[in-house]
Design brief:
Blueprint lengths: L4 H17 L3 E4 L18 H7 L5 E4 L4
Parallel strand pairs: 1-2
């Protein structure tokens, strides 16, 4: 029994787009030195920079509450 080509195509498409749908996590710290890229806690950015570069589905993690 073979798998229909349409099913194979759909499974490949879902697999390839699943990563693209995942949002980026941006890390924010309110105090400290110059802002970084926001890609890790070791290189946090400012809240303003994270908000201006955020897109739908992104997550902003804050190191302290205001």
């Amino acid at each position: 029994m073979s798998i229909p080509r349409t099913l194979v195509f759909v499974l490949i498409l879902v697999t390839l787009t699943a990563h693209a749908l995942a949002g980026t996590v941006r890390f924010v710290k309110h105090v400290g030195g110059p802002p970084g890229t926001g890609s890790t806690w070791a290189d946090p950015t400012t809240l303003g920079a994270a908000l201006s570069s955020a897109a739908a589905g992104d997550e902003i993690q804050n190191s302290q509450t205001v």
